[in-house]
Amino acid sequence: MNKPNILALVKSEKSARKRMRYLALLHFTEGHSRTAIATMLKVSRTSVNKWVNTYLSQGLSGLDDKPNPGRPPQLSLAQQASLKAFVQQRSLSEQGGRLMAKDLSHFIQSEFGVTFKQANIYRLLHQLGFSWITTRSRHPKQSEAVQEAFKNFLMATIRNTPGHVALDRIDVWFQDEARFGQQNTTTRIWAKKGTRPRAVRQQQFESAYVYGAVCPATGATEAIIAPHANSEYMYQHLKLISAATPFGRHALIIMDGAGWHQQALADDFDNLTVLKLPPYSPELNPIEQVWQWLRQNVLANRCFSGYDDIVEQCSIAWNSFIENKERVSELCSRRWAMLTS
């Protein structure tokens, strides 16, 4: 290889160690002695000898970084698997509390006879695929088996919708209500490191209910804002969904078991069917994520002067969310809710 090519390698190489080897090789090809090269680069003559000899015997590829296996792990693969199972079991235990580094250190010492410092415990947990995150809440009566059974809801759809309506003419809607008001939430913000800014949080009690419904397949949405949550406003919401359903199609509305979510309310509409979610299963309803989006992106960290202001700001927040139909579909789509492929 000629000098210009070596010089180009020196200029383009990002690894400082490898760039040093190229520099030594460049000086060598320019006729400098190995002692002089060591002095210029402030490295040992032994290193220069090694680099030059490697280049002469193996070419440029000999100067590449070699894999560094590092220190062998203190725990075997079997021991790591046992530790991982212990962490998963303790983290999901219903006895309460949380797993601390000292608990893991004691477990490793007693089970494997190996001592770990606290900082190394955290590093080990990350290597095993764990992270320190906030848990999601779950009702004590919630049944995962019932939820999984509901996700296979094709037969329930066939049983509950009119027999003359084909599956490809059924639009699946998700419906729910949420209360927004002066008992508002605060959220994370960007702030200067080392500070913790204060955000306004009111203590008054004015509020409004947002009735929201989305059809992920089409991106269609319907909402009303009311002072109360009851069957009268629920009927008005169903009326909006019925009017938004195209002629010849049928709307299957999935909602939770709230007292005002009466299936009889849909009897007045030929193009609506209500299907109830299993008890204590809010995570099956993607509208819950819509409420979170509204709070996190628009409504959090602010004051409301009264009911009218709450209604106006909730309207602005809802319209901000639904202006992008792709966002509606992406956030609310569920594979198990697709009746046709």
Overall description:
By secondary structure, this protein is of the alpha/beta class. The chain is 44% helix and 11% strand. The chain contains 13 helices and five strands. It has a five-stranded mixed sheet with strand order 3-2-1-4-5, sandwiched between helices. Helix 1 (3-12) packs antiparallel against helix 2 (16-29) and helix 11 (287-299) packs across helix 12 (307-322). The model has no long low-confidence stretch (mean pLDDT 89).
User: In total, how many beta strands?
Assistant: 5
N-to-C terminal Cα separation, in Å? 59 Å
Strand content: 5-15%
Name the strands of the widest sheet in spatial order. Answer: 3-2-1-4-5
Q: Rg, please?
A: 32 Å
Query: What series of H and E elements makes up the topology?
Result: HHHHHHHHHEEEHEEHHH
Which percent bin holds the helix content? Answer: 40-55%
Q: Catalogue the unreliable spans.
A: none
Shape: elongated
Overall residue-averaged pLDDT value:
89
The profile of the biggest β sheet is: 5 strands, mixed
Number of helices: 13
- Secondary structure class reads alpha/beta
